[in-house]
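Checklist before submission:
- one chain only
- standard amino acids only
- sequence pasted in full

Submission:
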Amino acid sequence: MIHEMKLQNQPFISIKNGVKNIEMRLYDEKRKLLAPDDKIRFTNILNGETILVKVVALHVFASFEELYKHFNKISLGYDKKEEALPSDMEKYYSKEEQSKYGVVGIEIKVEGE
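Returned file contents:
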């Protein structure tokens, strides 16, 4: 099964370059349909470029705070100089949404189209 998701430019580039391998999302109805070995086609919202990745594993947590404790910041898409803060995700998902759905770290691997 191939799922479609949109991404900001910077995380898209990090995934494309094989640096970021954990995509963080709410564990909502759409993400609950994901399973290991499924594919995700990410579309860069800046330029429409797409990349196909394979879902390796799903890591479900109650909050981004918990998720951030389990992965290094590089795999989450931060560079070495950046501070990795769970509150960064609040610009995309409110604390209320996080409480309602939980969150998921989607472990991915770049595939060829």
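Reviewer check: The first helix runs from residue 9 to 16.
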